[in-house]
Amino acid sequence: MVTSLQAIAEPAGRETFLNAGSDAVLTFYLIALAAVSVFLAGFWRRFRKYRQGRPSGRLSWRRIERAIVDLASQRTVGKRDPMVRLAHFFVFWGFLVLTAATAIIAIDEDVIGLLLDRPDLRFWNGAFYIGYSLVVDVFSIGFIAGLLYLGWRRRQRPFRLDYSRVDRAGDSYDRRGYGLDDRVFLVILLFLGVSGLLLEGFRIAATGFPDFEVASVGGWLVGSATSGLGPAANETARAITWWVHAVSALTFIACIPFSKAMHMVVDVANLTLTDRDSARRLPAANGHLVGVESFTRKELLDFDACTKCGRCHEVCPARAAGAPLSPRDLILDLREWTDALRGVRLWYGPGAEPRHRDERQVAGGVIPAETLWACTTCMACMEVCPVGIEHVPTIVGLRRRLVDMGEVEPGLQTAFQALTRAGNSFGQPAKQRARWTRGARVTVKDARAEPVEWLWFVGDFASYDPRAQQVTQTVARLLDRAGTDFGILFEAERNSGNDVRRAGEEGLFELLAEQNREALAAASYRNVFTTDPHTLNALRNEYGIHEAAHYTQLLDHLVRAGELALGGLSGRVTYHDPCYLGRYAEEYEAPRRLIAATGLEVIEMGRCRENSFCCGAGGGRIWMDDSGLTERPSESRIREAVALGDDVSLFVVACPKDLVMYTDAVKTTGNENRLEVVDVASLLERATETEVVPVG
Ligand code: SF4
Ligand code: SF4
Asked: Residues 695, 573: contact at Cβ < 8 Å?
């Protein structure tokens, strides 16, 4: 057996330039040289563009390791679409294996054979050749199958792959080039995969089916099908296909920097440098830089990394609400603009002439102000983007420029003035911040005057909004019932500045943060918690109090420690994950555990956990005018909850802003008698009753 395998392996191998004369070989190398030169020239233009950005300082071993895992598993591509992940997995690995296979031939033929002239060191033969053939063919077949699936899916015209803009009339732009680029890219890859297999089949048939070639499973099957043509016809077909395949592959290489294929290079770098925390802890303002230089190198990479997959476009609450914002289009507009300014060209057209030559016009010009103000900073785009693009910091960076130029949305301007004057967005006197304590029916300590175990950073909405105040009082009673030692900062607390910062008002954020830091430093406490998920983000990521907790986490801790006995409710409810508790703080379980502890069953909406849909309040949107929207995100969300069925009559929230937004939305959608919006804390208080209380 061993001897027969050896006998098969012994002659295994083939000539790269089978039956080609020296002129043909020389022609091939000249074309290859031209292709590589064009590739390098195109790549150099892009590289020059990236170098004009500010350094990002992102490179680290931890990120490299994560990127390797992301790429190898294609897990970021698989978000919300396992079939696309599988297809892309085969395409990715197929392409990698085929590229490695070509590199192996080049090393064996050109480096060892030609340059070093060491035939004794050549290795592309024998058992290695057989293993090589098997691996390459299996991956080729997977590569073709993956591409066929992706092509078929594209023909189904999913919403996310429709390049229509939400911010312009249909006749004011032309994006046919985008679709053409996608199709050409797909067809070229498919052509390379198929022509490679055909070439192999013709060769096997022309050379009489040597035993060792059975490892080339795909080629063997093709050769079996074409063997009827006879050896001479197969050899002619092989020679023609060889040239067609080789010239196509070299043309493809030359076109990479000028087409969608560039994402194969840029996305590797982008995934390596991406930092999801950049939305949680925003980077510092970039001073007075304008234009291309004002972006970081990572942002410039982001613009080129976009594959136009449209996932962010699909999930964006602003886009869904009819606002003139699509995160995909924002990135593509910045790409086209920076390309045009820096002379980067794409084969199908964009990049020829920038719409705005004045580099100061990026915020408010290239990206209109109403587009920038539409963002809720919900982070859904960043969560779903398969290539690690960071939309939120870029949008906030452009908002900062609008603020610097004095172009602030009117409602936002009013809020900024109130925050500057009173330290809260309601414009109420600081003395009234703790007014809710009067009706709480428990004693609330002053953490400035006596030490407490838990410092409660209440937050603006929980302190001032009459509806949210009731929940705040409920939380106080629950903590008192559990014997928790807690206190607040009374009038020393200020708005945390989380949304102020995300609205682009860096100076006001600094002022608020400084006042809060001073107040916190003057108090005596062991732990901090807050009612507001937005404030939680500021405490953890902007103020650096990493151990700060959300009130649902504290209550969950108390319930699990046996300090708070719950139960007695029955029925079905649905729960809404707030963006700043879910995607930002990655807390999905504590509120659900609390609801379950009351005896209620959570029925999930389709968009839940990291896929949750924003209420529309974040990023300062709660202060801005939303009358121009076709449907508010909160209304869309309420309709989603209503569609769960009549037996789901409670919409549970864990954020004071959600309470306000959704209480309004059940009214404006006419569901006041159908759905009750209730905070988790209110449910818990109901559940401290001992008898069974059916909800709804
Ligand atoms: S953060 Fe949210 S609202 Fe803003 S662009 Fe992304 S998905 Fe849209
Ligand atoms: S930004 Fe990311 S999610 Fe959006 S279209 Fe581009 S690649 Fe897809």
From this structure: yes
